[in-house]
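#structure-requests
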Amino acid sequence: MLAFSVAILRKVCYNKRKNTTEGAMLLNIENVYKYFGGEALLEDICLTVEDRECVGLIGRNGCGKSTLLNIIVGRLDFDKTPEGLGSVAVNSRARIGFLEQNSGLDSPLTIREELMKAFEDILAAKVRMDELEQQMTGLAADQLEIVSGEYSQLSAFFEARDGYRIDVKINMILNGMGFAGVPTDRPVSSLSGGEKTRLALARLLLEEPDLLILDEPTNHLDFRTLTWLEGYLKGYKGSILIVSHDRYFLDKVCSRICEIEDGHLTSYKGGYSQYLVLKKQETERRMKEYEAQQREIEKLEDYIVRNKTRASTAKMAKSRQHMLDRIERVDKPITFVKPPKIKLEYDIEPTKDIVKVQSCPVAVGEGEKRKVLVPSLDMHIRRGEHAAIIGPNGIGKTSVLKLIQGLIPHEGGSISWGGNVKIAYFDQEHSSLDMVDTVIESVSRKFPRISEQQARNMLGSVLLSGEDVFKPISVISGGERAKLCFAHMAFTRGNVLILDEPTNHIDLGTKEVLEDALAEFPGTIILVSHDRYLINKVASRVLELSPEGARSFEGNYDAYAEVIAAEEAEAERLRSEEKAQKSLADYNENKQKQYRSKQQRAEDAKRRERVRELERLIEETEGRISALEGEISNPKVAADFALMTKKCAELDEAKASLDEMMEEWASLA
């Protein structure tokens, strides 16, 4: 009785609800400063984020990106102008979700229990709704109206947050984030660091905040998970603010790029590639304005110098001085931040066939802990190829690089190298560096024939200069260690470059320089990387590693992605055809069974007659139910408790009768 009335109310409330932040400005930052040690890290920052906008925040390491995110979420205070200006305003109705860089979940709960915490407010609303339904069974009309009001609000909230699809959402997010097949009753504490980070992102996506703030969300994600995340974020119903060094990701997801440079924030419409074009155009425009103003200033200054001492022209010179003083100076745009210089050359040309791998297993661990990742690997790299090895995390990409170099043993199969091959190896763990050495000692120890001046020149070209060269390797940053490894590679003069995640820890400027150096390298490259922008620019062939072996694709990452997309579309078409053929086969089988005896046909005739009768009765009963529902919703009836009770009893009786008829109809039909 009351449940049905509440269902009507719930439907009305759901149809009338609106997104509380739709079309609104979610974040507005004006005139924000941040000082550390008396020096400004951020100056006069102004930023707005509108509803359903995806903004990418970029800049060199240490420029203040993470600091700005922490200011937005209230973890850091900001500084104001001397006039007291400066504000960070977040829409009061907006829910903010923040994923810090490399912040994994640390919880004693299971995966499912942890993810269900994303729906705590929704589940609490459902519990309260159940309580109210129990209460409403014995309430008078005036009390019922009050309770129904609370119920309708909770119901509208529950449906607005898709409370009936919680399990569907959890399964979808887990599959997309690479947890397909992982038992949801597995403790979170048993996951690896990378898995905990992915699970933290999965939980945040399930919470569906109005403003999603992500600091380097693509860490620990393989290509398939990245592709899924890009598609999910492109359809996200809220707004997104992302800090990322993944330029391919920024291109796919973002509608605006904001760059922090020299403490100031500049906004550019479009993805990362469009940002590069717009920034170049803006810099050229500002440089022209600056140069034009400088020419005007020089003319005024020259006139003043030549005429201020002569009595006849002193007055005019003074007038020119006033003009000069009133000019609002245009700052010279930042057109040159010294990039590292990475030049990769070699002396000897190798043979045509660089390396052949035949029927070679790829395994990790020893003894009982030994695990075979790829039972049989076949791979052939030729001179001049730039081959990128990709695949899911844990498949053994780094192990393949070590295997072909003999750094780890192999059982069975064969690995053969061509003649005149000289390898230069970049290890993502920088294990070739001795942490006790200083930067300069690292070079002189490995290349004793190089003079100190040559070593310092090379280190200076990768922006390791001055006192930095005398620092122990143990205290320099990951990006500086990577640059030192690039210097080692340049001194090695290898004709085959083997690179394992070379763009980890380095800023965008260094990435672009490295990409150019690798793209122009005439020798052979064997590359493992998660940086799709790098692969797109450098690779001439992509090798996808899986337990079945290495599958080769000609071209760069975009070419590989097109082939995979076409294959998936073809697989879906074949599945549809198979389903259609199965349906046709079922139809033909049923048709063959249609021959029946005379008695069967008589029974079928009776069944059809009863079905028609039931359909007539169902239609009449539904009409009766509709009429009763209309009477119940009439305020006059609702005000008369006795009449309301009678009508509700009639409605319950009609619905029970309808249920019985529907069950009989379903069994006969």
